[in-house]
Amino acid sequence: MFTGIVEELGEITAVEDLGDACRFRVRGPVVTEGAKHGDSIAVNGVCLTVVDHEGDEFTADVMAETLVRSSLGALSVGSRANLERPMAVGARLGGHIVQGHVDGTGEILERKPSDHWEIVKISLPADLPRYVVEKGSITVDGISLTVVDAGPDYFTVSLIPTTLALTTLGHKQPGDPVNLEVDVVAKYVERLLGSSRGADR
C-alpha cells in the first residue's frame, strides 16, 4: 500500500523490449536505498516489483496488460517518473490509501497558472466519473491530490509549488497522458450498495 506522497522524481535509464512485456531500468537514489529483489516501488502510480537493484538504479518488468492500461508505455529513456516505496507499518498516512492499481488514464486538458498555485484540468475515462467527487481524493501519476471540481468527464486539481517542482505534474503539458487511481473506498461502497440492493429484491 502507498500513500501518494512522492518520494523523488526518478529517471528512466533503459527500456528493454521483451516482446509481450518490457523491462524498465529506473534511477532513484532514495527509493533504492535498502531495496532488494521482490520489493515493490510505485512508478507513476503503478506498483512494480523490483527484479534487480544495483547502485541507485533498479529494474522492473512491466507486462502487456499494464502497458495497455497505464501510461507507462509512453515512457522512454530520459523520461522522469514519480517514485514511492510502500508505506511502512505504523507510519503516518500522509496522503490517502493508494494501491498502485491504475484504474485508467486521463489526459492533461488545460493548465491555469496563478501566483502561488496552478489549476490543472484532466480528462476522465467514461467509467470513472462516478468515483470522483469534489474535495475527494484521487491519485494522478502516483500523486495523492484533492479534487477541486468534478465534471461529467473531467476533474481539476490545484497544485502547490512543491508538487510542481518535485513531481511529473510540473512538466506535463496539455495532451500528455496521466495514470489515474480513484479512491478505493468509493469502489467498495459501490459494490456493497449494489449487493444490498440485490438482496432486497
From TrEMBL:
It comes from the Bacteria. It holds the Pfam family Lum_binding. GO terms for molecular function: riboflavin synthase activity. Lumazine-binding repeats lie at residues 1-96, 97-193. InterPro entries: ATP_synth_asu-like_sf, Lumazine-bd, Lumazine-bd_dom, Riboflavin_synthase-like_b-brl. Gene3D superfamilies: 2.40.30.20. Pathway: Cofactor biosynthesis; riboflavin biosynthesis; riboflavin from 2-hydroxy-3-oxobutyl phosphate and 5-amino-6-(D-ribitylamino)uracil: step 2/2. It catalyses: 2 6,7-dimethyl-8-(1-D-ribityl)lumazine + H(+) = 5-amino-6-(D-ribitylamino)uracil + riboflavin. Keywords: Repeat, Riboflavin biosynthesis, Transferase. Its EC number is 2.5.1.9. PROSITE patterns: LUMAZINE_BIND (PS51177). Residues 1-96, 97-193 form the Lumazine-binding domain. Catalyzes the dismutation of two molecules of 6,7-dimethyl-8-ribityllumazine, resulting in the formation of riboflavin and 5-amino-6-(D-ribitylamino)uracil. This is Riboflavin synthase.
